[in-house]
Design a protein that fits this description.
- A hairpin with a 2-residue loop joins strand 6 and strand 7.
- The relative contact order is 0.12.
- The strands form 3 sheets. Strands 1, 2, 3, 4 and 5 form a 5-stranded mixed beta sheet that branches.
- The protein has 2 domains: about 120 residues, no CATH class; about 130 residues, no CATH class.
- Helices cover about 20% and strands about 35% of the residues.
- The chain is of the alpha+beta class and about 280 residues long.
- It starts with 6 loop residues before the first strand and ends with a strand.
Length: about 280
Amino acid sequence: MAQEVQLFTSKEVTEMAVFPGCEKINASDKKEMNACLSQQLSQLLVEKLNGFDAVMTQNGLSVAMAKIRFVISKEGIIIDVNELKGSNPMLAEAAVNALNRISEELPPIRPAKLKKGTPVNIVYQLPVKYQIEPDENQETAQVYPVDEIVLFTLLDDGFRYEIRLFKDKDIKAYEIKDGTETYLGKFLSLGEVEQSEPYQSLINKERNSDKTLVADGFLDDGFFEIYIHNLFDRKSKKPVFVEVVKVDDKKRTSVSKYEKEAEFNRSRFAPLIYRE
């Protein structure tokens, strides 16, 4: 919705929004209604997040947490879905996308109401926790020796835009031109990056390619490029993996491939993605 809407909290309404499956609860029982909404919505999210286990395993995680903010409009529709600060970026992006899909599939929700029965827009926050059972093959999360690592790099007519993960939480963007680095801003998630220009247009171009540059640089034995494959491919669901390419006299030779991020992080090429 383009126009600004007035938002209410549960404390300000007389009746809560009635989520499908919660019809037998008194709408004025705010505690029970909130608990029911959380339970019903969490069940739907679990179904939509099917397959996120692979992302967790790939990144050496057994548990991830995010907090999602959304609005149930006076028309009974879930709108304005966003992640809040401090969320795991990968889980936050997946949860936001999942909740948007859920919104498209749900029947109209009975909206929250004021004392006089006027329907209003009500804002909610939903904590999301995703946990998998670690096994003997489960990788532990990587602890980096620096505060920032490069997630991927976007190229545009002589400009480089490095998208970095700062202290495992915040996403930061930097522009690099002729060796000069300029900080452009901070984002709460990769989803927020994808909604901002020039990154949105550049990422759309990357969707037509099977690999995206992460970083490049010199090691003792030459110049190397790090690529991540299928990062922005959301249709074919091809596996995401990292490839290391050695560049020698304009000849490119693939030297290593890593199916798990933790494996790459233990390799001698990992310092190429470190940023002080």
